[in-house]
User: Fold GntR family transcriptional regulator from Streptomyces nymphaeiformis.
Amino acid sequence: MPEQQPPPYLRIADELRRRIAEREWEPGDRLPSRAQIGQEYGVGENVVRRAQELLISQGALEGRAGSGTFVAELRQRVRMVRSAAREQPGGSPFRADMKAVGRNGGWESRTDAKVPAPAEIAARLGIGEGELCVRTVYEFLADGRPVQLSTSWEPYDLTGGTLVVLPEGGPHAGAGVVNRMAEIGVTVSHAVEQPEPRQATAEEASLLGIQKAAFVTHIRRTYYSDQGRPVETADIVVPAGLCEIVYEIPISR
Amino acid sequence: MPEQQPPPYLRIADELRRRIAEREWEPGDRLPSRAQIGQEYGVGENVVRRAQELLISQGALEGRAGSGTFVAELRQRVRMVRSAAREQPGGSPFRADMKAVGRNGGWESRTDAKVPAPAEIAARLGIGEGELCVRTVYEFLADGRPVQLSTSWEPYDLTGGTLVVLPEGGPHAGAGVVNRMAEIGVTVSHAVEQPEPRQATAEEASLLGIQKAAFVTHIRRTYYSDQGRPVETADIVVPAGLCEIVYEIPISR
DNA sequence: TCGAATTTGTGCGTATGTATC
DNA sequence: GGATACATACGCACAAATTCG
Assistant:
């Protein structure tokens, strides 16, 4: 029985991995072109491409069209702690996360008031499809570079006519959902987060400056009032290569 | 300037999506062969393959080698709630999750005592590389079908010589980490979970009965004692198609 | 029981598009 | 604008799995 050997593209992938591990190419360096590498090992360009795609999907390489294939820079990932202690009076959770890793946090946002709720959002907020919402699109930055995206929805009939109707406007701008709701007498008692793995869309990849099909965690988060009513829900896109997500769970017995 | 049209494989993908949505093929049905579909639309087999691969990666189709391509059955996903209230005296968290969705929970496990800790595990447990651990590999089942994998590590010098040294043996078998540690006077105060998105390995896919590169959430979980010492760490593989993960976070202000 | 036909899955080449320098 | 390099689309050949006569 003949012992089968691994396919060529896996052998090339191992070779590339080895040469990177041995620091023949340093982070940021450009690899030789696929034609060159292929000739060196006596395989077609396509075999090299498959090998590189594998390492790209694992985050070890980075392909730049028209420029070359590069050894990925190992950037320190942003640590996002999600726990009960996260919500502090007066502060923003995101800024606290950034401060903890010594980076300068900030964000850009764009709010559209009175957007009809799509079906899924309506279900999550417990309202009818098409009822009006305040939608805010966020782009969170660390040292000026985008590291996280979020789209937030709040029922308009909850905040409409109050000072906190605009999450990023008015006297309570940027204070966070919990603090803003407290201003209008709504006590937020708990959050539910549902993380799902998927790949970044082309648009998300472009906004975040990451590879096209990089892995992201898509978190559906909903804040509930102490009356059990959903008061806000958001779709948060966290790229695995830029952020690590940490849940701290207290144990009560 | 000529208006560019989408590539053929995306057009075929849309066609297949439409015919599935219109219930021309029901969940579980087999699609016509690639050759047939290709002929019908006047494209090559490979275009159909690319279109099907796209829908497979999105979970809408399922390919079975030698058999055919099938419309995916929409099975109800297992909801796994991860919160402070999860740990109950005397019960197992997993069985509670299963009961909540009306399914019969269970698991199989295999324990190896005195396994030297690999570097990453040692770092997570705060012990030296190569120090001995008790390693337990779990396969969690819902109605007899595997829905989750887990590999758990406990430092041997913590439980060695006690009745709870084997997680799934002795009088406290299957009681869970928190309850077992309590038996030897160790109070577990909190857990830290770090979810990362990735694709299933071939082995995981085979064990879980899912498609080869399906999305999974890989959770690194560590339990800490009230002294701040890590007492257990585990790598948990949760397939997105079978389970949904829910974190409940209380808000304290 | 076994082998042939069918079908999906994999590996790899070529042509073309597109971004960068 | 040309040269270079990666990205995409598509086709062919073959392997592996399944089914069926």
